[in-house]
Amino acid sequence: MTERTESGVRLVILLAIAAMAGAAAFTHVHDLSVAHGQPNWIGWANAVAVELMTIYLGLELRARRRAGRPVGLVGSLLVAFALLSLAAQVAEAESSVWGWVVAAVPSLAFLALVKVVLSNAPVTPPAVEPDQPGAYRYEEPAEATEVEPVRPTVPTSPVVSAVLPPRAVQSNRPHVVGIIR
Fold first, then answer.
1. For the chain: N or C, fewer Cβ within 10 A?
2. Nearest alpha carbon to residue 175 among 139, 142, 151, 149
3. What confidence tens digit (pLDDT) does each residue in 14-57 have?
């Protein structure tokens, strides 16, 4: 099997499990919300909020890992929303160990896939601080560059043009105006 075909098969499997887990999770969160006094439309709003927040946080976590940014808060929120979804599925299940296990399967399968997908994200290691014990940091020596002195430009007017040579009047070099401290 070629790598491209294998990637396509993995994507189809991921989407199928995500769709089924999403349908089960949406339904359980909706039904639990309605069973506890929320109107039907708020039940769906709760389901959308919980499930899409979980997906968004997974994507945000992956983007932050690629960029080498901190993931602590996003990771904690992802776990919290995933547990909320899982709790809704278990609460809607038959009141037995097997009922809870069977109800938890879609969420657990989806969480396992999210973990696998997120673990494939390249991680940018944080920069080593030079004052850490055992840290070694190599820096290239700076190249010597010649600094050109700043020359003030002279406004062009007939009087100035008559007094100063043309080279000084027509200078189009950028200049720095201001006080240097």
1. C
2. 151
3. 888 888 888 888 888 899 999 999 999 999 999 889 888 888 88
